[in-house]
C-alpha cells in the first residue's frame, strides 16, 4: 500500500473540526450556485426597458418586476453563454402575447447580446420599421421569429451579420394599406446576404410585399429545409438550372408570386421534398417526368400557375406518399392516367378547370379509401358517374359539375357517413334520383341542377336529411311533388334550409315548408305558380326579415302580400310576372329586377332605402310620365333600365353626368335634345336611347365618357354630321346610329388633329343604316378597326357584360343579320358586324374591309356603290352574313368567295353583276333570291345556264351528267341566336366511285 495517499476517515479528526469543515463547504457551494443562477443586472434592466415600450405591460407580462430574478420571468430563458461568467439570457419568447408597441424600446433588445433565440411573433408593433442597426450585436442568434408582428419597410443590412441563424421567420407582416394607398408590410428586395447563411434550415418570408427577384443562391443552401416566399405578389424569380443532389429541402412554397419559367428536370434531385406549391404564379411549360422521383412528396399544388401540362405524366402515379394534389387550371388534356390508382394516400384531388376527357376509370374504391375531397369540375369528362364515389368511407366533398357525364345515377351501397357536399350540376345525367341519396345522413348540399333527370320525386323525401341546408333541383325534367302540407306538428324536426332551388319544375304551388323555415336563397323561377305571393313564404315572419336572394321570376303571380317594407333583401327578382300597382322597395336592396310586369309607379321613398351600389331593372312595365327627379338623387344607383315603358319629356342631364354605369331608356316617348353639359364625371359604360323621339345633334360632351362601351341612339330623329369626335372614346365597342337623320360623309379622315385619337380601335359593332350618309368610304376608315382584325384572343372575355351586385348584366343590341332584325342578348366579343345599308354612299367598296378577319356580318345594301366585289373578301373566313344588294356593282362574283365556309346568308341581288355564279362551297346552298336582278349572271341556282363563252363555267354537260352532288347541312347554334352553318359536299362520280369531301 506504500506510495498511495492515505484516505482521511471521519474518526481521524475531532468532531468539531469536521463539522466546521462541512459548514464552510456548503456555504461555498450555496454562494457559487447563487452566483450562477442570478439574472445579470444589465440584462434585467434591458428587459424592463423593453417592457415599458409596450402598452399596458402589466396585463401581459405580470411577472416582469424590478428586483426579481429575470431568469424566472415569463418568456425568458437563461443559461450558460459563451465568453460570459455565470448565466445570461439566452432566449426570449414573447410570441402570441398580444403586446402592442409603436416601435420604441426595440434598441433594448440589442443589449441582450447573449440571445440565441428571439421571438416577437404575433404582437403588434404598429408598422414600425426594423432598426437599421443593432442586429450586428446579436451575433449568437440562431433563431429569429418576427412573424405577424406588424413590422414594415425593408430588411436592414445589419441583419446580414447573423451568420449563425438556423431559422428566420419574417412572415405575415402584411397589414394592408395606409391612408395614402401604400402597403404596410415588409417590402423591398429580398437581400442577397440570405444566401450566405450556411446554417439556415428555415427561411419563411411569406405574406409580405417583397419585390425584385429571389436570389438563386438561396436554393443552394446546403441545410435549408423550408423555403416559403408565398404571397408576395410582386416577387419574381425562376428555378435554378440545376438543383443540387443531396438537397435537404422539404418545403418549397412559391404560391402567389411572379415566379416564372419552367420546372427543371433536376427537380427530381430534391429527394426530401414533402411540399411543392407553385400555385398562382406565372410558370411555363409542363411537368417533367422526374417529378415521379420525389418519393417523399405529400403536397403538390400547381393551380392557376401558367403551367400548360397537356397530358398528365404517368410518373405522378409513383408519388405514393402524396396526400394533396391540386392541378386546377393547368391546361391538362386527355385522360387521367391509370397510374393514379397508386395514389392510395390521397386525401384531396383537385383537377378542376382543365380539359380532361374520357370516363372516370382512373380510380377505384380501393384507391380512394382515404379521399376526403374530390374536385373534377369544369372539364370534359364523359361516361357514367361511378357508384363507388358515394360509398368512399372518408369522403366529405365531391364536385363533378360542368362536365359531359351522362347516363343514370346508379344506386349504391354503404353510403359514405361523412359526405356533406355533392355537386353534379351542369352535366347530361338522366334517369331518376337514386333512393340511396336519401341515406346520405351527413349531406348538407345536393346540387343536381341543369341535367336531364326524369321521374317523380316527393319534395318531403329530402326533409329526412336533417343536416341538409342547400338543395338545388332546378332545370331538369323532374316532376317535383309538393306534398308537404302535413308538416305542421313535425316542423321542429325540419332541416334548416339555407338555399332551395326548384326552378323550371312545372310547379303550381309554393312548397309548404316555407311556412316554417326562412330560406336565405330561394329560387322558384320558371314555374306555373300564380296568384298572390304570400307573406308566409318567409317562414311566417312579418318583420325584420333579412334574406340574401329571392327569385320568383317567370311565374304567374299577380300581386304581393309580402311585407317588403319591413324586410332586407339583397337580391329580389320578380320579373316576367303580371304584378300590378306601385313598385315595392325593401330595405337596402342591391339588385331588383321587376321587369316585364304591370307596375305603374315608383315610390318616392326609393332613395332613402338604398344605401349601397344598386341595380334597378323596371323595363317593360306600365310606368309613365316624366323621369322621376328622385333618380337624380340616388347616388348609389349604378344600373337603371326603364326601357319599354311610356316615359315622356326630356332626359335629365343628371342621369348622364353622374353615378350611372348602365342607362337604358329604349322604346319610350322621350323627346327634346340630349343634355350637353356632361363633365368629367361621366362613368357610363352603356347609354341606350333607341326608339324614342329625341332630336337635335349629339352632344359633344359625350366625349367625356371614357368608359363608354355601348352607345345606341337608333330610331330617333337625331340630325347632324357623323360624330367623328367619338373616335377618341378608348373603350367603345358598340355604336348604333341607325334610322335617324344624320347626313354627310363618314369616310374622310377628320380635319382636326388629335394626338389622342383612338379611331375606333375597340369597335366591334357599328350600325349607320337608314340615314342620309353620303360620299365615298375612305379605305383608312376600316384600317383602324383593330378589334375586328383579331381572330381570337385568349385573354379576352367571352361577352360584353358587367358583374353588378353579384349578377352578370349583359347588354343587348338589335342588328340586321342574315336579312332579318335580331336581338343579340349577349354581345359576344367575337361578334363583329358592320351595317352601312340604306344610305347614299358612292364609289367603290374599300378592299381594306377584307382585313377585318373576325367580321361576322357585313351589310352595304341599298346604296349606290360601283365597281366590283373586292376579291379580298375571300379572307373573311368567319363571315356568316353578306348583303351587297341594291347597288350598282358590276363584274363577276369572285370565285374565291366559294372558300368562305362560314357564309350562311348571301344577297347580291339587284346589281349589274355578270358571269358564272361560283359553284362550290356555300354557294351551292343559296337560292335564286340571293342573285336575282342581275341580268348578266348565270349558273345554278338561276335557271339561266352559262354558255361556253361565259368565264368560269365549271363543268361541261358531260361532267354534269356523270356527277351529282349531295349536300348535307350541319347547323350548330351558339345558344344566343347566332348560328354557324357548314355544308358538307359529297361529289359522287359514277365512273371509278370517286368521292370527295369539301
From TrEMBL:
<dbReference type="InterPro" id="IPR001611">
    <property type="entry name" value="Leu-rich_rpt"/>
</dbReference>
<dbReference type="GO" id="GO:0009791">
    <property type="term" value="P:post-embryonic development"/>
</dbReference>
<comment type="similarity">
    <text>Belongs to the RLP family.</text>
</comment>
<keyword id="KW-0472">Membrane</keyword>
<dbReference type="Pfam" id="PF13855">
    <property type="entry name" value="LRR_8"/>
</dbReference>
<dbReference type="GO" id="GO:0005886">
    <property type="term" value="C:plasma membrane"/>
</dbReference>
<keyword id="KW-0732">Signal</keyword>
<dbReference type="Pfam" id="PF08263">
    <property type="entry name" value="LRRNT_2"/>
</dbReference>
<keyword id="KW-1133">Transmembrane helix</keyword>
<dbReference type="Pfam" id="PF00560">
    <property type="entry name" value="LRR_1"/>
</dbReference>
<feature type="domain" description="Leucine-rich repeat-containing N-terminal plant-type">
    <location>
        <begin position="41"/>
        <end position="78"/>
    </location>
</feature>
<keyword id="KW-0812">Transmembrane</keyword>
<dbReference type="InterPro" id="IPR032675">
    <property type="entry name" value="LRR_dom_sf"/>
</dbReference>
<keyword id="KW-1003">Cell membrane</keyword>
<dbReference type="InterPro" id="IPR013210">
    <property type="entry name" value="LRR_N_plant-typ"/>
</dbReference>
<dbReference type="InterPro" id="IPR046956">
    <property type="entry name" value="RLP23-like"/>
</dbReference>
<keyword id="KW-0433">Leucine-rich repeat</keyword>
<feature type="signal peptide">
    <location>
        <begin position="1"/>
        <end position="32"/>
    </location>
</feature>
<keyword id="KW-0325">Glycoprotein</keyword>
<protein>
    <recommendedName>
        <fullName>Leucine-rich repeat-containing N-terminal plant-type domain-containing protein</fullName>
    </recommendedName>
</protein>
<feature type="transmembrane region" description="Helical">
    <location>
        <begin position="964"/>
        <end position="986"/>
    </location>
</feature>
<dbReference type="InterPro" id="IPR003591">
    <property type="entry name" value="Leu-rich_rpt_typical-subtyp"/>
</dbReference>
<keyword id="KW-0677">Repeat</keyword>
Amino acid at each position: 500500500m506504500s506510495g498511495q495517499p492515505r484516505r482521511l476517515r471521519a474518526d481521524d479528526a475531532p468532531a468539531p473540526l469536521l463539522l466546521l469543515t462541512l459548514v464552510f463547504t456548503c456555504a461555498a457551494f450555496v454562494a457559487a450556485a447563487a452566483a450562477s443562477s442570478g439574472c445579470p443586472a444589465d440584462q434585467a434592466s434591458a428587459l424592463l426597458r423593453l417592457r415599458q415600450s409596450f402598452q399596458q405591460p402589466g396585463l401581459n407580462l405580470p411577472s416582469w418586476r424590478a428586483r426579481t430574478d429575470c431568469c424566472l420571468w415569463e418568456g425568458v430563458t437563461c443559461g450558460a453563454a459563451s465568453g460570459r461568467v455565470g448565466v445570461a439570457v439566452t432566449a426570449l419568447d414573447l410570441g402570441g402575447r398580444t403586446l402592442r408597441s409603436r416601435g420604441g424600446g426595440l434598441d433594448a433588445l440589442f443589449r441582450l447580446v447573449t440571445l440565441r433565440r428571439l421571438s416577437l411573433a404575433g404582437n403588434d408593433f404598429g408598422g414600425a420599421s426594423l432598426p437599421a442597426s443593432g442586429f450586428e450585436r446579436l451575433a449568437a442568434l440562431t433563431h429569429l421569429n418576427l412573424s405577424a408582428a406588424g413590422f414594415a419597410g425593408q430588411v436592414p443590412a445589419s441583419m446580414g451579420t447573423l451568420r449563425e441563424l438556423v431559422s428566420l421567420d419574417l412572415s405575415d407582416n402584411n397589414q394592408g394599406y395606409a391612408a395614402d394607398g401604400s402597403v404596410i408590410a415588409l417590402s423591398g428586395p429580398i437581400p442577397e446576404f440570405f444566401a450566405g447563411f450556411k446554417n439556415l434550415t428555415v427561411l419563411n418570408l411569406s405574406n409580405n410585399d417583397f419585390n425584385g427577384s429571389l436570389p438563386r443562391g438561396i436554393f443552394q443552401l446546403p441545410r435549408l429545409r423550408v423555403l416559403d416566399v408565398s404571397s408576395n405578389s410582386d416577387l419574381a424569380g425562376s428555378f435554378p438550372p440545376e438543383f443540387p443532389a443531396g438537397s435537404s429541402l422539404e418545403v418549397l412554397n412559391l404560391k402567389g408570386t411572379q415566379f416564372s419559367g419552367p420546372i427543371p428536370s433536376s427537380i427530381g434531385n430534391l429527394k426530401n421534398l414533402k411540399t411543392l406549391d407553385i400555385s398562382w404564379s406565372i410558370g411555363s411549360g409542363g411537368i417533367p417526368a422526374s417529378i415521379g422521383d420525389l418519393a417523399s412528396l405529400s403536397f403538390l399544388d400547381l393551380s392557376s400557375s401558367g403551367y400548360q401540362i397537356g397530358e398528365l405524366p404517368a410518373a405522378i402515379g409513383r408519388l405514393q406518399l402524396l396526400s394533396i394534389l391540386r392541378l386546377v387550371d393547368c391546361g391538362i388534356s386527355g385522360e387521367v392516367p391509370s397510374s393514379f390508382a397508386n395514389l392510395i394516400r390521397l386525401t384531396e384531388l383537385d383537377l378542376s378547370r382543365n380539359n380532361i376527357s374520357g370516363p372516370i376509370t382512373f380510380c377505384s374504391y380501393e384507391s380512394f379509401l382515404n379521399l376526403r375531397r374530390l374536385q373534377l369540375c369544369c372539364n370534359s369528362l364523359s361516361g357514367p358517374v361511378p357508384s363507388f364515389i358515394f360509398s368512399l368511407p372518408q369522403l366529405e366533398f365531391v364536385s363533378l359539375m360542368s362536365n359531359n357525364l351522362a347516363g343514370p345515377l346508379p344506386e349504391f351501397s354503404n353510403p359514405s357517413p361523412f359526405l356533406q357536399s355533392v355537386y353534379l350540376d351542369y352535366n347530361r345525367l338522366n334517369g331518376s334520383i337514386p333512393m340511396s341519396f336519401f341515406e346520405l345522413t351527413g349531406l348538407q348540399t345536393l346540387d343536381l341542377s341543369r341535367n336531364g333527370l326524369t321521374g317523380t320525386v316527393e319534395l318531403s323525401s329530402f326533409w329526412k336529411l336533417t343536416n341538409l341546408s342547400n338543395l338545388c333541383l332546378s332545370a331538369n325534367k323532374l316532376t317535383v311533388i309538393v306534398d308537404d302540407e302535413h308538416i305542421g306538428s313535425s316542423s321542429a324536426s325540419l332541416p334548416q334550409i339555407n338555399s332551395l332551388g326548384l326552378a323550371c319544375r312545372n310547379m303550381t304551388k309554393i312548397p309548404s315548408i316555407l311556412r316554417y323555415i326562412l330560406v336565405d336563397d330561394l329560387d322558384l323561377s320558371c314555374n306555373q305558380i300564380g296568384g298572390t305571393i304570400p307573406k308566409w313564404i318567409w317562414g311566417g315572419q312579418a318583420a325584420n326579415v333579412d334574406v340574401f336572394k329571392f327569385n320568383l321570376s317567370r311565374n304567374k303571380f299577380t300581386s304581393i302580400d309580402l311585407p317588403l317594407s319591413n324586410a332586407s333583401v339583397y337580391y329580389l327578382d320578380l320579373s316576367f310576372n303580371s304584378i300590378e300597382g306601385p313598385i315595392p322597395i325593401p330595405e337596402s336592396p342591391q339588385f331588383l329586377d321587376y321587369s316585364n310586369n304591370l307596375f305603374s309607379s315608383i315610390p318616392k321613398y326609393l332613395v332613402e332605402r338604398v344605401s349601397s351600389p344598386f341595380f334597378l331593372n323596371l323595363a317593360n312595365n306600365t310606368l309613365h310620365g316624366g323621369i322621376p327627379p328622385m333618380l337624380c338623387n340616388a347616388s348609389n344607383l349604378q344600373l337603371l333600365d326603364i326601357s319599354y315603358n311610356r316615359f315622356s319629356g326630356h332626359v335629365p342631364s343628371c342621369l348622364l353626368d353622374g353615378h350611372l354605369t348602365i342607362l337604358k331608356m329604349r322604346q319610350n316617348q322621350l323627346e327634346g335634345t340630349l343634355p350637353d353639359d356632361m363633365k368629367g364625371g361621366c362613368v357610363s359604360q352603356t347609354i341606350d336611347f333607341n326608339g324614342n323621339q329625341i332630336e337635335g345633334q349629339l352632344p359633344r360632351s359625350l366625349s367625356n365618357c371614357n368608359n363608354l362601351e355601348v352607345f345606341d341612339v337608333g330610331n330617333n330623329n337625331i340630325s347632324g354630321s357623323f360624330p367623328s369626335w367619338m373616335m377618341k372614346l378608348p373603350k367603345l365597342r358598340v355604336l348604333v346610329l341607325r334610322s335617324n337623320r344624320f347626313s354627310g360623309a363618314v369616310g374622310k379622315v377628320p380635319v382636326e388633329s388629335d394626338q389622342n385619337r383612338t379611331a375606333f380601335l375597340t369597335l366591334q359593332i357599328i350600325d349607320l343604316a337608314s340615314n342620309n350618309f353620303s360620299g365615298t368610304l375612305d379605305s383608312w376608315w376600316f384600317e383602324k378597326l383593330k378589334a375586328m382584325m383579331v381572330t381570337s384572343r385568349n385573354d379576352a372575355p367571352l361577352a360584353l357584360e358587367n358583374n353588378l351586385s353579384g349578377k352578370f348584366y349583359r347588354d343587348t343590341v338589335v342588328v340586321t343579320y342574315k336579312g332579318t332584325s335580331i336581338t343579340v342578348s349577349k354581345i359576344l366579343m367575337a361578334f363583329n358586324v358592320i351595317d352601312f345599308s340604306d344610305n347614299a354612299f358612292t364609289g367603290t367598296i374599300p378592299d381594306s374591309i377584307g382585313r377585318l378577319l373576325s367580321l361576322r356580318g357585313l351589310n352595304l345594301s341599298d346604296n349606290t356603290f360601283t365597281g366590283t366585289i373586292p376579291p379580298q373578301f375571300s379572307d373573311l373566313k368567319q363571315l356568316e352574313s353578306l348583303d351587297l344588294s341594291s347597288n350598282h356593282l358590276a363584274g363577276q362574283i369572285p370565285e374565291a368567295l366559294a372558300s368562305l365556309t362560314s357564309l350562311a346568308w348571301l344577297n347580291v341581288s339587284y346589281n349589274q353583276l355578270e358571269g358564272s355564279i361560283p359553284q362550290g362551297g356555300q354557294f351551292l346552298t343559296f337560292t335564286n333570291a340571293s342573285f336575282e336582278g342581275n341580268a348578266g349572271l348565270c349558273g345554278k341556282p338561276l335557271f339561266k345556264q352559262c354558255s361556253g363563252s361565259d368565264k368560269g363555267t365549271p363543268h361541261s354537260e358531260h361532267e354534269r351528267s356523270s356527277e351529282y352532288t349531295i349536300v348535307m347541312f350541319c347547323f350548330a347554334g351558339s345558344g344566343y341566336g347566332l348560328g354557324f352553318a357548314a355544308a358538307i359536299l359529297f361529289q359522287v362520280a359514277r365512273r371509278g366511285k370517286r368521292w370527295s369531301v369539301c
